[in-house]
Write a structure and sequence with these properties.
The structure holds two protein chains of two kinds. By secondary structure, chain A is mainly α. Chain A contains 24 helices and four strands. Chain B has two domains: 216 residues, 3-Layer(aba) Sandwich (Rossmann fold), CATH 3.40.50.2300; 140 residues, 3-Layer(aba) Sandwich (Rossmann fold), CATH 3.40.50.2300. Chain B has a seven-stranded mixed β-sheet, sandwiched between helices. Chain B has a five-stranded parallel β-sheet with strand order 2-1-3-4-5, sandwiched between helices. Chain B has a two-stranded antiparallel sheet with strand order 11-12. In chain B, helix 6 links the parallel strand 6 and strand 7. Chain B starts with 17 loop residues before the first helix and ends in a 10-residue tail after the last strand. The N terminus of chain B is likely disordered. Classes of the chains: A mainly alpha, B alpha/beta.
Chain lengths: 612, 395
């Protein structure tokens, strides 16, 4: 009896360790960088992709032996890491901490797009030269590559641990991680430390790409994003910046996913991973393998968003701009332009919502697309299944998004800094996965078709002017409301929470209530935005609002200036408009977009209009 | 350009025999070559992914479009005018596909629009095309509700209601599999296909013992396959594209699965063989075309494709190639009026097609039926015609 009942569970365990093994390769590098720079490096996934392509060149074009390939990949990616640090991040060392985060997103766009242009978007095979023997375990088997991956993961973590504990440069790295200014004063060359750390982590990231590419015999220019995401989750489970913890966290993540599949089926895999992440963040925010339950002194609050002098538009200018925007369709009748601007206004609603929680309250959300999805589904289903008129369904959807969004993020209220970002990222993923799996309500992957357009008195508002006017009118109303809110005592309270939550609490501010209030307002605004999108699109499914939309929203907010209402609108207009402007460049347009983004961050890290 | 042209003989074709000209010119060693098209070009618009995660499909589309246009324009174009296209990158994103739709409908030179790739991007744009009266021709849009968007929305995408029973036939009737495990992409396409397949397989007397839906960016299938193994199937069915299909095939053996595999036609790609390596040997598929097929449409496409790109064509470039042939015919019949082009769809009959042999639209569903297919199996790293042998039962 035992073999039939235990048999598959042994296999699920082994499979969990096999995939966890792969996550560990990335998690170790991310943990190292986070440990020193307090930076979630979104470019790490792209370095991993570059490593895979260097390996592909060595293996298939140059026919180099495997050890030389490894050295070439490590050297190439190590160099790339040093260049990223020097060109992309060092100029931002005195910028607000949010700027380097955005820079890594920009770098990853540039790297992914360059690879796509150089090597074509087609996936390619990366054959392994390892022996093909396999060891039978349970009902399945593992191969030489599985063992090599484990050896590289554990070996590199061990080496790094030794390096950080026992070498002089390692001490310097740890000193820098603890207090950069103090380390510098003691004579530590902080730049050299950062460069070394980036080079080591990137070399490891590149080797991971090579190994994983060989493992699946597939590499493609977009392989980095999803892999990087899993690496980030894994290192958080292990405890940020904790290198041995990253390995344990990765294995644990692999096991959670594998058991999740075993119990509920494949489509629940990531749901399990992200729910586990939230649980761990809430219960043991310092990771499972930290000695203390308390978070280490959080260097991010307050300094996360640097104050700057915002560019304040005079009242008459705001009124003139608003009037000009409203009058535009009377002068310009180009539907393409109106649609693009209409899209910009819809995204500005999302940016407005995000700038309130991320900018004003300092809770940087990376899962904001989830609110769009909730609003879109709520309004569509209310209109289609409950027969609610669209005009009523849209505000109701806003309420649903406000309630659900706040409830989902509520467990993360006790978190700070980067932890909030990761928790909200997980919430965003959970929303998508619930939509995919809750078929009786959401119709699953088939999606919702035939969503009626917005109509007033039986007349559908679908023409070129209305796709522009409706979002603009809603946007102006919410923007005015939000500006008033920020100038009231409420705005001051919310900013106090951002600047110093301990001080705010000691003055009697109930943090949870105010955070809840901010998320509710933000949820309403984004929910209405998502609802409007659904009625314009007429069809939505779980892929309509993917994770990159959340990244785009954050980029808009930072570009405009955190907490800045006018900045959010400007950021949305610029980032929706730029890719359209670069249309003539076809395949090159996303590369140009990435470069422009990097230049903007470099020369205006506090955002175009400055933080408020 | 494609291949050396042995004959420089130029033959005059009347507009009426334009389609005949195409049928000849698609034969690479065709004896005839019409005058190159000249004059004011006729345009169709394409909305599809050139960047972003689906860019690989847009790249395959382009190859199919360019090949078809080379042939059409070398053979006199449309009534002597060259056919050309504008490809706007949507990144497979509804926000961008609706902006592109507005751009196309406002541009009088665009006579018909092709694309987008996925349902969210395509169907968000449908209301705009429908209202403006520009045909949206979705050639990869198998969503059952796609053409319900209105009378300007047409598709020659393979109907899964037709395709899946064929796959079920192959698995159940030909290969004698009775206990099937189905792995499908958890997208609107994969889900629709799976539902139809399961029904068809049951009608043919087989049992479906497991169904597993996976996300498009999934790479690790080991635990999924253990679940499949525990259900004790005698055959595995893949409703996949080529990259994920190959990834699944590679992980079968490591979890101890040796059952025969049947995959849908969308895995038909040289990339499936390249990425799958030895692991895809023995995979059965019911492809919609096969390079060795003697049909002139297939030969004209495959030989010219090989000559132009030095590689094997795949299903996605064939869809794109077919789509241009349709566009050419409806523009030829409908002229330069958008509504007349819509009205031309039910009137054009027997358009040469790689996938359908001869495509004719049903005015009710605005789709094409009668998909061609061949039973293939991967042998020694190549697709070959299935020889009728049933794999030995391994369980």
């Amino acid at each position: 009896m035992l073999p039939t009942t235990l048999g598959p569970w042994l296999d699920y365990t082994i499979n969990g360790l096999v995939i966890g093994n792969i996550y560990a390769l990335l998690a170790v590098g991310l943990a190292l960088i986070f440990g020193v720079s307090h930076l979630i490096n979104f470019a790490h996934g792209s370095v991993y992709m570059v490593g895979a392509y260097i390996g592909w060149l060595c293996v298939t074009k140059l026919n180099l032996p495997l050890p030389i390939t490894f050295i070439a990949v490590a050297a190439g990616c190590g160099l790339l890491g040093a260049v990223i640090e020097r060109v992309g991040l060092r100029p931002l060392r005195n910028a607000p901490r949010i700027a380097p985060l955005l820079a890594t997103i920009g770098l990853s766009v540039v790297l992914d797009q360059s690879a796509q242009l150089l090597f074509s978007p087609d996936p390619r095979a990366l054959p392994t030269q390892l022996p093909t023997w396999r060891i039978a375990i349970g009902g399945g088997s593992i191969g030489a590559l599985d063992l090599l991956i484990a050896a590289v993961g554990i070996g590199s973590a061990g080496l790094l641990y030794g390096f950080l504990r026992f070498t002089k440069l390692g001490w310097a790295v740890r000193a820098t991680a603890l207090d950069r200014d103090a380390a510098q004063q003691c004579g530590v060359d902080v730049d050299k430390v950062n460069r070394t750390v980036f080079a080591i982590a990137s070399a490891l990231g590149g080797v991971s790409g090579l190994l994983v590419g060989m493992y699946y015999n597939t590499i493609d220019p977009n392989m980095g994003f999803q892999a990087g995401l899993k690496g980030i989750v894994a290192q958080l489970i292990g405890g940020v910046g904790n290198v041995p913890g990253a390995i344990a966290g990765s294995l644990l993540l692999g096991l959670i996913e594998s058991y999740g599949i075993a119990l509920f089926g494949t489509s629940y895999r990531n749901l399990f991973a992200f729910v586990a992440l939230i649980l761990i963040l809430v219960l043991r925010p310092n990771g499972l393998f930290a000695r203390a339950r308390r978070l280490p002194p959080e260097p991010l609050t307050g300094t996360f968003i640097a104050p700057s002098r915002p560019l304040v538009l005079p009242k008459w200018a705001v009124w003139t701009l608003a009037a000009a925007a409203l009058a535009l369709p009377l002068v310009v009748q180009q539907p393409y332009l109106l649609q693009t601007l209409g899209n910009a206004w819809l995204y500005a609603l999302l940016a407005l919502s995000l700038t309130l929680v991320a900018g004003t309250v300092g809770q940087v959300s990376l899962g904001h697309a989830g609110l769009l999805a909730i609003g879109a589904y709520a309004s569509s289903l209310l209109a289609l299944d409950a027969g609610v008129p669209v005009l009523l369904a849209v505000p109701l959807a806003g309420l649903v998004a406000a309630a659900l969004g706040t409830a989902l993020v509520y467990p993360a209220f006790r978190l700070r800094g980067h932890y909030v970002s990761i928790a909200t990222l997980a919430v965003g993923e959970i929303v998508t996965l619930v939509i995919l799996n809750w078929e009786s309500l959401t119709r699953g992957p088939i999606g919702v078709t035939g969503i009626p357009p917005l109509s007033v008195a039986g007349k559908p508002l679908v023409s070129g002017q209305w796709v522009y006017w409706v979002p603009l009118a809603v946007l102006l109303a919410f923007a005015a409301l939000q500006s008033r809110l920020l100038n009231s005592h409420l705005g001051r309270t919310l900013r106090a929470i951002r600047e110093d939550d301990v001080a705010a609490r000691s003055y009697g501010v109930d943090l949870n209530r105010y955070k809840g209030l901010a998320f509710a307002v933000a949820g309403f605004v984004a929910g209405v935005g998502g609802a409007l999108m659904a009625h314009f699109y007429s069809y939505i499914n779980h892929e309509t609002f993917p994770a990159p939309v959340s990244m785009l929203a954050l980029t808009m907010v930072i570009l405009g200036g955190l907490g800045n209402v006018a900045g959010a609108v400007l950021g949305a207009a610029v980032l929706v408009g730029l890719p359209e402007l670069f249309r003539a460049a076809a395949e090159y347009r996303m590369l140009i977009y990435g470069v422009v983004l990097l230049l903007l961050i470099r020369f205006r890290p506090q955002g175009l209009l400055g933080t408020v | 350009m494609f291949g050396p042209m042995p004959s420089r003989r130029s033959v005059l074709f009347s507009a009426l025999t334009g389609s005949l000209a195409l049928a000849c010119s698609v034969i690479p060693d065709g004896l005839a070559k019409a005058a190159e098209a000249a004059g004011e070009p006729l345009w169709f618009g394409v909305s599809g992914p050139l960047t972003g995660p689906s860019a690989q499909y847009g790249a395959q589309w382009k190859k199919g479009f360019d090949l078809a246009l080379d042939q059409i324009n070398a053979a006199g174009g449309v009534k002597g005018r060259p056919l050309r296209y504008v490809f706007e990158d949507s990144q497979n994103d509804p926000r961008q596909s609706i902006a592109i739709a507005q751009k196309f409908v406002a541009d009088p030179k665009i006579l018909i629009e092709l694309g987008d790739f996925s349902s969210p991007a395509s169907m968000a744009a449908s209301p705009i095309y429908q209202r403006a009266g520009l045909v949206q021709f979705g050639f990869t849009n198998s969503h059952p509700d796609f053409t319900k968007g209105g009378d300007f929305i047409w598709s020659n995408s393979i109907s899964q209601a037709e395709e899946q029973p064929n796959v079920a036939d192959f698995a159940v009737t030909s290969l004698k599999l009775k206990r099937l495990a189905v792995l499908h992409l958890n997208t609107d396409w994969g889900r629709t296909s799976k539902d139809i397949f399961v029904k068809a397989a049951k009608e043919r007397g087989a049992e479906v013992v497991a169904t597993e839906g996976y996300l498009p960016d999934e790479k690790d299938f080991r635990s999924t396959l253990v679940r499949v193994r525990e259900a004790n199937p005698d055959g595995i069915v893949l409703i996949s594209y080529y990259a994920d299909g190959a990834a699944i095939a590679r992980q079968l053996k490591p979890v101890g699965l040796t059952q025969p595999v049947v995959a849908v036609g969308s895995v038909y790609s040289p990339k499936f063989l390249e990425l799958g390596g030895e692991a895809v040997n023995g995979v059965h598929t019911r492809a919609n075309f096969f390079p060795a097929e003697p049909r002139p449409e297939v030969q004209g496409f495959v030989a010219a494709y090989r000559a132009k790109y030095q590689e094997e064509p795949d299903a996605f470039s064939a869809y794109a190639y077919d789509a241009v042939l349709v566009a050419q015919r409806v523009i030829e019949v409908g002229g330069t009026d958008r509504t007349a082009i819509r009205d031309a769809f039910p009137r054009v009959k027997d358009i040469p097609s790689v996938i359908f042999g001869k495509a004719t639209f049903d005015p009710e569903t605005r789709r094409v039926s009668g998909v061609r297919n061949v039973k293939l199996v991967v042998k020694d790293g190549a697709f070959v015609l299935w020889d009728g042998s049933v794999p030995a039962a391994t369980n």
